[in-house]
Every structure is written in C-alpha cells, then in structure tokens.
Amino acid sequence: MSTSNSENESQSRLYNPYKDLNPNIPVKTLYNLPTSPEFLFHEESLAQRRSWGQNLTFYTGCGYIAGSVAGGGKGFIDGVRAFEATDTLKLKVNRILNSSGHAGRKFGNRLGIIGLLYSGLESAMVEIRDTDDVLNSVVAGLGTGVLFRAGNGVRPAAVAGVIGGVMAGLAVAAKQVMKRHVPI
C-alpha cells in the first residue's frame, strides 16, 4: 500500500504559485503600488486638505478619544480620593472603575461634540469662502464655542466663543511652526 502512494506522489506534481516569478527580480518591485494618494478627479488632487467627511471623522474621533482618556484619568483620581478606611480591595477597584467610566464617558462625549461642531463649521467656511486659511479655523473655533455654550446664556456663549477662537488660532499657529521647524 505504501508503494502505490509513493508512485502516485511521484506521478503528480504539486502546484507552485511562484514558478513563473523571475528569481533575479526582487519581490519588492514585483507589485509596483503607488505611494501617493490616488484621486478620481483632477480637481481633488489640487486640494491639499481633507474632505468634509474625513474632517468630521478625524475631529470627532480625536475629541472623543482625548476626552475619554482625560476623563478616565480624572475619574481614577476621584475614585482613589473616595476610598474609605473600611473598603475592601474589590470595593476600591469598583469605585475606580465606576468613576473612571463615568467621567471618561462624560468628557469624551463633550469633546466629541466639540470636534463635530468644529469640523462642520470649518468645512462650511471653506465651502463658502472657497479658500483654506487661518480665518476659517478661527471662525470655526469661535462658532463652536458659541454653539456649545449657547444653552447657558449669552455671556457664557460669548466667553466660550472667544476661547474657541483663540484655541483654534493657537492650534493653527502651532501647526505652522511645526511644519517649518520640525522635519517630518
């Protein structure tokens, strides 16, 4: 029985998917994939910015993640401060997890909404003005602050608007400094 198996194996040949490849050509050049972004229309390649959908996803996601991490840290500290002398280890861990989850969720949602408002306003400004400059970011930051605090009254909305405009201006200025002085 073993003889018939060995005869069948010698008569059949296993498939080798690499048989047609030239061994002198390196594998890296086998698939010449482009490293630059590909665009469907030429007009898309002229714009050096993300689309409104990419901005929406990026700013909202970054805001939510940053807020969740910051809120989780604050919740951890609050949970440790809430320890009582009679708490067991299980109860201490439970306090930390509950307070971290609550604060992380709260901060994450707030910063996610701020990112959502900012991306929408910035994309609207670019569409309306048909230019991409610092003014769009500052106005979007100002509008985000006003909209985020509009339910609290006129004065808190105005203060939040000024803070949002200044923060957006500082972020754009820091980005320009980083582009100029940090080789990436």
UniProtKB/TrEMBL annotation:
GO terms for biological process: protein import into mitochondrial matrix. One of its GO terms (molecular function) is protein transmembrane transporter activity. Signal peptide: none annotated. Residues 1-20 are annotated as: Disordered. Pfam families: Tim17. Keywords: Membrane, Transmembrane, Transmembrane helix. Its main location: membrane. InterPro entries: Tim23-like (IPR045238). It comes from the Eukaryota. One of its GO terms (cellular component) is TIM23 mitochondrial import inner membrane translocase complex. Residues 1-14 have a biased composition (Polar residues). It is found in: Membrane. It is a multi-pass membrane protein. The keyword Membrane applies. This is Mitochondrial import inner membrane translocase subunit TIM23. It comes from Dillenia turbinata.
